[in-house]
Design brief:
The protein is an alpha/beta fold. It has two domains: 1-103 and 180-196, FAD/NAD(P)-binding domain; 105-178, Alpha-Beta Plaits (2-Layer Sandwich). Helix content is 17%, strand content 29%. The protein is built from four helices and twelve strands. It has helices at 18-29, 60-72, 117-121, 164-168, and strands spanning 5-14, 34-37, 52-53, 58-59, 77-80, 83-91, 95-102, 125-127, 136-138, 140-141, 153-154, 181-192. The strands form four sheets. A six-stranded mixed sheet has the order 5-2-1-12-7-6, covered by helices on one side. It has a two-stranded antiparallel ribbon with strand order 3-4. A two-stranded antiparallel ribbon has the order 8-9. A hairpin with a 4-residue loop joins β3 and β4. α1 crosses α2. The longest helix is centred in the first third of the chain and has 13 residues, at 60-72. It starts with a strand and ends in a 20-residue tail after the last strand.
């Protein structure tokens, strides 16, 4: 039976949007060790994907990107992206235990250098949910230009296994056999900053109900 690795932190933040990042930075600056778990392949949440924010109409990327970079380089913060929470148990007195599943990117995060050669070589185009489906992305891709981490991931639902990405990768990072990995995070406190889901454009009549 394979042993599940266990990591210990002072606090666990679930969600790496603007709220989760700010919470992690506030705790990290006070000397607490913080684990940030994000289900998407990049931190930043919904705010990094917006153009401007109400009511000041400030550039949302200009606000969020520095916080993303600060969290990524903070000595007291560990980021776990493309991860799902499987279970959470415990209490404030006893501490909490979270079972986390690292989903496979099919790209080795240690070897990947973010050059995007795999993305350029991929012949498969699919609608890009980051752009509301109005534009396309490849079957292997980096989520967006200022994504953190700058690590590609492979969409197994659309990949044709043509092998072109593997051939052009200068770091040998493509791994078609990568498997999910479970690990445990033990923490004295948990912050839920899981955010929200936007309404799909295809559900909006004024946008053509997905038929235009």
């Amino acid at each position: 039976m394979e042993l599940i690795r266990s990591l210990e932190f002072d606090a666990l933040v679930l969600g790496a949007g603007i709220a989760g990042l700010q919470a992690a930075l506030d705790l990290g600056d006070q000397g607490f060790k913080v684990a940030v778990v994000e289900k998407d392949a990049s931190i930043g949440g919904k705010m990094i994907r917006l153009s401007k924010v109400f009511p000041t109409l400030d550039c949302s990327s200009c606000i969020t990107t520095p916080k993303m970079a600060a969290a990524a380089h903070h000595e007291n913060i560990a980021l776990f992206t493309y991860c799902d929470l499987q279970s959470l148990s415990g209490s404030g007195e006893q501490g909490f235990s979270a079972l986390i599943r690292q989903q496979p990117r099919y790209i080795d995060p240690v070897k990947c250098i973010g050059c995007r050669q795999c993305e350029y070589a991929c012949p498969v185009y699919v609608p890009d949910p980051e752009q509301g489906g109005f534009s396309a992305r490849k079957a292997v891709y980096v989520p967006f230009s200022n994504a953190i981490p700058q690590i590609a991931l492979l969409d197994v639902d659309h990949c044709t296994l043509c092998g072109k990405c593997e051939k052009v990768c200068p770091a040998g990072a493509v791994d078609y056999f990568q498997q999910p990995e479970d690990f445990v995070i033990a923490a004295r406190a948990v912050i839920l900053a899981t955010g929200f889901e936007t309404t799909p454009l295809q559900d909006k009549q004024q946008y053509g109900m997905g038929q235009i």
